[in-house]
Amino acid sequence: MYKKIIIIIVFIIFLFSSGVLAVTKKEGVENFPIQYQGYLKELQKKYPNWKFIALYIDLDWNYVINQENVFGKNLVPKSYSDSWKNTKPGEYNVEVDNGWVDCSRNAVEYCMDVRNFLNEVRIFQFENLSYDEQTNKVSAVEKILYGTEFYQKKINYYNSSGSLIQTNTNYSQAILNAAQTAKVSSYHLASRIKQEVGPFLSHSSISGRVTGFEGLYNFYNIGATSSSEPMGAIKNGLQYAKDGRGASDETKRKYLIPWDNKEKAITGGGIFIGSSYINIGQDTIYLQKFDVSDEKKNDLFWHQYMTNVLAPYSEGKLIYNGYKNSNLLESDISFIIPIYKNMPELPVQSPNIEKGDYVQDSSRVFADVTNVLNVRSGPSTSYETIIQISRNEKMTRIAKGKQNGERWDRVKLDNGIVGYVFQSYLKEVSDINVSEIQISAPTQRIKKGETLQLEVKVLPEEAIDKSISYSSSNENVAMIDNNGNILAISSGKTTITAMAKNGVKNQIEITVYTPVEKIEVTSKNIVIQEGKSLPISVIIYPEDADNKKVKFTSKDENIVSVDSNGNVTAKKQGETTIIVQSEENEKIQKEISIKVLPILQEGEIIFNSPLVVLNANIITGIPYKENTVSQIKSLIGTKYEMLIYDKDDNLMKEQDKIGTGCKIQFILEEELKAEYIFNLYGDVNGDGKINSTDLLVLQRHILEIEKLTGVFLKAGNIRKNGKNPTSVDSLLIQRHILELDIINQ
User: Fold this and answer.
1) Mean pLDDT of all residues in the chain?
2) How many other CB atoms sit within 10 Å of the CB of residue 572?
């Protein structure tokens, strides 16, 4: 059963607060520190569908440990050895909860050091716990429940009157239903139930028979805070199941409180876990135990579901077994793995390992075995195998030692993996030092996003340790992995260094550039009056291209001229084309059709407030929600006939809504006198409304799934800065939809 820290959940998330924790996610093994990569590459070899997401946490390792190493925050069973327990006078063996005591600093460090758990079994404490329809199945939930009284069992429960109510729903189906509703992994909910109430239906939290709390159930022990009273924690949890312990009516409705039947308790508790943890950034078991990244920001290190310091490992192991028994280990599973600043060079050893039994060493050794040698996570065959290494493979011994009468050495492989091997299978080698490193590359200038393989030769050939470490002087420009593969990140220069263990090194300078890929213009068809001028707005993709210069050409300068800045001047009536070309690559270009109409006399067309004409042919300032054809016409003074067409050139009716891309024509005796295009900021699909559809269209543009062009691109630039729309513009549309801020037209 998990033991809880007292938690008062306040569901107010401050979106803009001071001291916001910087947390960044990047998918791919290459985005992890070298110390992580060896472990993850081994896992990726075996499970190519697994995805590893680096969670960069902008917190110093020692600071994190100091925040977690607080009395009562992390507990172990009292029966554990003293190496696991806090032995400070006055705190040693003090029961924080029944049978549970404060743990040692070493235990906190060991359990928080991610590198100790990057093997097939232990990694599941980092599994992304969001709901995945493809992998979450009733059969798999049953596999997790195997060995408990929940397995293949229908739900029966006692109501508040003591009557037994029978249902036709299995526990596994109820858990899956709860997972779908809460958007939480069903494996997580099932294993958490096993962890919290054990294998028996008779557990007091779910018996429905506790005096004073008849007919109430709490499968996850939510609110079961510590108490010195008999069954105090259980009763606190059942009190929460009864009335939410002071929660608002809205909160109780959200969590389906009271939990007066088992299905409500399973689902409502699942919703609690989802909204309180998983859906606010604590989306792994590890992050629920060690609160270093939740989106609440204001209660780091305290918004923690459990106090058992080993809970992430034990619950993760249950989930692993569920996947394994269901033959789902080959599935697309993603893991979110934290990285702290200034972590120790080597993984922190388990408190089980007596430090006095180990003597530091730094000798080079090799595997003296017939076939393969198991490298384990601890000094015993009871620990999981991290990797199998081949005969004669070389490594560095970190320490020589003895554990439980057996001699095990701690070693570091050349790929960065740290583990333990049986001492008798290791032999020392004589070192021949590296004297020279030669570096070459097919080119020293590469495009952003491309990779480059360095060619490195280590001399002399007979050197025993020819391992090379690589580094980049500016990882914002380019990164390099352990194999000498350079990945170009952004424009600039960086120096790549290849260094041997004995300090011998060589360097090469790499230049990264970002080429132009595409040109977009705000309008591909322009209608303008004689004598008028307007600028052509050009957006270069990608935004960080090195050479953003373009040149403008008019095919007929007698009709329109265009200067080097893209300013177009209409000279006489007619039609022609403006060509916009990339200076870097003339094959990348856009054409703009220009139609010049006779000049209008003053007062022939008057656009009354709030309407505004931009760039000679774009009308903005459209009053949102008062944008029907008849309403807009009423704001325009003219003797001409006004015809308004939608974005697809269909003639609009008086009651139709005017949106982005609609055009108005002024006609006299069937002759076109003027034409303007409407722009409604935020209406990127041109239906005259600003809603979730526009949000989706803009997000697809930002993700480069389906790009906006012309006036629709302009409409997406809510900030009106002339740049390509970003997530900031997307947020402004969201706030408009929620009526927090109305978009200024």
Assistant:
1) 89
2) 13
Query: Long-range pairs for 695-703 at CB < 8 Å and ≥24 separation?
Result: 695/730, 695/733, 695/734, 695/737, 698/725, 698/729, 698/730, 698/733, 699/730, 701/725, 702/726, 702/727, 702/730
One-letter amino acid of 384: E
For residue 140, which amino acid is it?
A
pLDDT in tens, 548-587: 899 999 999 999 999 999 999 999 999 999 999 999 899 9
What is the rounded distance in angstroms from the CA atom of residue 447 to the CA atom of residue 177?
49
Q: Where are the alpha helices (DSSP H) in 113-210?
A: 138-145, 171-182, 186-197, 204-207
Beta bridge partners of 341: 60
Q: Would you call the peptide bond into 542 cis, given omega within 30 degrees of 0 as the criterion?
A: yes
Sign of CA dihedral 734, 736, 737, 739: positive
For residue 7, pLDDT over 50 is answered with: no
Domain 604-745 has CATH 3.20.20.140: no
Q: Cβ distance 582 to 707 under 8 Å?
A: no
CATH 2.30.30.40 fits 355-428, yes or no: yes
For residues 725 and 715, what is the distance between their CA atoms, to the nearest angstrom? 9
- Residue 52, pLDDT above cutoff 90: yes
Q: What is the pLDDT of residues 321-368, one digit of tens each?
A: 878 887 878 878 899 999 999 999 999 998 988 666 678 888 888 888
- Could you tell me how far CA 347 lies from the centroid of its own chain? 25
CATH topology for 518-597 is: Immunoglobulin-like (2.60.40)
Burial 210-219 (b: 16+ CB within 10 A, else e): beebbbbbbb
The one-letter amino acid code at 319 reads: I
Residue closest to 379 by CA, chosen among 416, 414, 418: 418
Q: What is the enclosing helix (H) or strand (E) of 271?
A: helix 262-276
Terminal C-alpha separation, the chain: 57
DSSP state of 742: P
Alpha helices (H) in 423-568, listed in sequence order: none
Closest CA to 592 of 541, 536, 549, 540: 536
Please list, in sequence order, all residues whose beta carbon lies within 8 angstroms of the beta carbon of residue 285, skipping any fewer than 6 positions away. Answer: 124, 125, 126, 127, 129, 188, 311, 312, 315, 316, 319
In the chain, where are the structural domains located? Answer: 22-128+284-352, 133-279, 355-428, 436-513, 518-597, 604-745
pTM above 0.90, yes or no: no
Please identify which residue in the block is written with the tokens 């002087």. 473
CA dihedral 114→119→125→128, nearest 10 degrees, is: 100
Residues paired with residue 521 on neighbouring β-strands, in sequence order: 538
The pLDDT confidence band at residue 219, using thresholds 50, 70 and 90, is: very high
Q: For residues 454 and 480, what is the distance between their CA atoms, to the nearest angstrom?
A: 9
Which of 58-62, 480-484, 531-535, 684-688 is predicted least confidently? 531-535
In this prediction, residue 432 has a pLDDT band, given cuts at 50, 70 and 90, of low
Q: In what order do the strands lie in the sheet with 100-102?
A: 75-77, 100-102, 95-97
Closest to 184 in 3D by CA, of 266, 242, 301, 300: 266
| Count of residues making up the chain | 745
User: pLDDT tens across 498-530, in order?
Assistant: 999 889 999 999 999 999 999 988 778 889 989
User: Is the link from the previous residue into 347 a cis peptide, with omega within 30 of 0?
Assistant: no
Give percent above pLDDT 70 in the chain: 95
- Amino acid 9: pLDDT: 30
Q: In this structure, which CATH number among 3.90.850.10, 2.60.40.1080, 3.50.50.60, 2.20.25.110 belongs to the domain 436-513?
A: 2.60.40.1080
